Amino acid sequence: MRRRRTWIAAYRELGDAGAVCRRFGISRPTLRKWLRRYDADGDAGLAERSRRPRQSPARKVGESEAELIVRLRRERRLGVKRLRIELERLHGLRLAASTLHKVLARQGLSALPRKRRVRHMPKRYSRPVPGERVQLDSCKIRPGLWQFTAIDDCSRYLVAALAPRRSAAAALTFLEQTFEEMPFAVQRVQTDRGTEFFAEAVQRRLMAWSVKFRPIPPRSPHLNGKVERAQRTVLEEFWATVDSRAPDVADQLSQWVHHYNWHRPHEGLGGLCPIDRVCERAGKTPIWAEVADTYDATNERVQVREHAVEMALRQLK
Question: Are residues 99 and 149 in the same domain?
Fold first, then answer.
């Protein structure tokens, strides 16, 4: 601002714009601009003004979009990648992760609180063929509403359904839905040691379908980690946005599962959707007739829910 006063004073003294510009190394348009501002506003006109454009027709994020992004971050504590998915799914707003990060950084929300560091790195694994291992589990949404979940170990293809209670009848109905909706043959199901899966009717039906039943040992939920993580995703991305008592909540869940399988990218799949991995491995995936031909019924029997008793029975055999 002091330099601009010097330019103005020199011009008032000399009256020669060319001489002033040569002396101070500025252009004539620059000198004329500050002369106009000084004549209009005095010393206040020599202050630097904002260079922000009055209109930004190509701007990606307006005030309403920025408020939406900040509200989702504060209410649901979503990271940038999951924010991007939810904005596209719920509001039809497609933004780059870098754009979302800039909006959050302006509000001081660029980083979520750090979680406790895992002492031992988990051992990651993934079956090479869709249907080779399907993990099953159930979780309580509210009193009188349970969610049954199945996810394929290889492709992360998801099936979810609702039931009023956690029972063997509900598990049988869900298994039929799972085998019908999954676009490949299921060779083995892996569950925890819940009573609904150990019912004799459920195990007999799996034998009739030529599907192996392989429950995990007690106190080892990490072995069913993919379905546990899938249930957490459903809780955070679906149940956080709907009313669990709505009459059409089952239809809403079906629509979200379709989005999960056909449109939602997964980091564990290198950015692919589950259906992309299914198509990628289609040439190596056996059909139901091939699964039935390789199924050995002599190795299967009705298992006991108590793990210690089951181990003792295997030794006697």
Answer: no
